[in-house]
Amino acid sequence: MQQVGKPVTGRDFIGREKELxxxxxxxxxxxxxxxxxxxxxxxxxxxxxxxxRLKKQKYYTAFVDVFTNPILDLLSSEITEEVLKNxxxxxxxxAAKNSATALIQNLKLKAVLDDFQFxxxxxxxxxxxxxxxxxSIDFVDAFSKKHNSKMICAYDEFGDIGKFDPKGNLVKLFxxxxxxxxxxxxxxxxxxxxxxxxxxxxxxxxxxxxxRIIHLSYVEKEPLCNYLKKRFxxxxxxxxxxxxxxxxxxxxxxxxYTQLAFQQSVLFHTFHGRLPDIDExxxxxxxxxxxxxxxxxxxxxxxxxxxxxxxAIAENGKxxxxxxxxxxxxxxxATKKLEGMGFLFRDNIRGWFISDPLFQQWIKKNI
Length: 367
Known about the structure:
Blueprint: H1 17-29, E1 33-36, H2 43-56, E2 60-65, H3 72-84, H4 90-96, H5 100-105, H6 107-115, H7 129-146, E3 151-156, H8 169-178, E4 184-190, H9 193-201, E5 212-215, H10 221-234, H11 243-251, H12 255-272, H13 278-288, H14 290-300, H15 304-315, H16 320-324, H17 331-340, E6 344-347, E7 351-354, H18 357-366
Helix pairs in contact: 1-2, 3-4, 3-7, 7-8, 10-11, 12-13, 15-18
């Protein structure tokens, strides 16, 4: 947990037991799922933990990150590679995919190529990229069917699928293929609720009723507190009983910022011989995340409605209509857009609040 920003699994995977149990049951039922949450909320960690556990139960698994693939050919290649991992053939595929001769001569791949000739197309520059992606999508199910297994395939940041084809033909292709699959179950995860709604929730969406929707929120505070106590004990740093609770209270159970708070408190202790108080810790975290937070603000500050709405919510999420009326802000429109972008949550106690607790602190301090 001293390393921040990477997905965590195994013993470092903390909390999310309810969500984990629900996902596991859905996968075993063959029910595909849509997982929606803002970035840095631990979606990838949760998905990888589910896949790791199911792999131990002899399921085939595949994890495809749509966000990191800039062109369609690379997406097709990653899908194929992830499927081949289940028979430990991915390294042979990676090494040989740029040469049709090398692919054909690879003895370990030969049995696969006999049934799935499309793979040779990765070495053919004239091969149509839409044919490759079409075959790759079906390869997920066909490979598991051939080997009489069940496949759990996760498409992370699936909302980015539109970058390959703004007209939506690729989404329709995925839908037409996946709805026919009999040996595969899917997890689609995404950060922007409005985008995922357009893909999965609206009755006009391509994936309408294909998958169950799960909205991921903060991690439960008790397991996070217990884990922090354990980690401080392991590295022999003495803490007060309330210190982990104070950290989790300020991070709101946000998984990324709880990791960051632990890391920065350990660094502070190393250089100062004591733990920072919570105010010192928040200042240090704001400094570490300065570039990221400034970039987030830069991306949304071109909208006058967003600026005034976020400033008001950072102070207090209640009575927004009354408070922003003098500024002639369309509060309903601004909050809906910001919620769809993953910036806002709402509950009956606080009203609207900013989903990123450190971003809220940054706005209060700087704007």
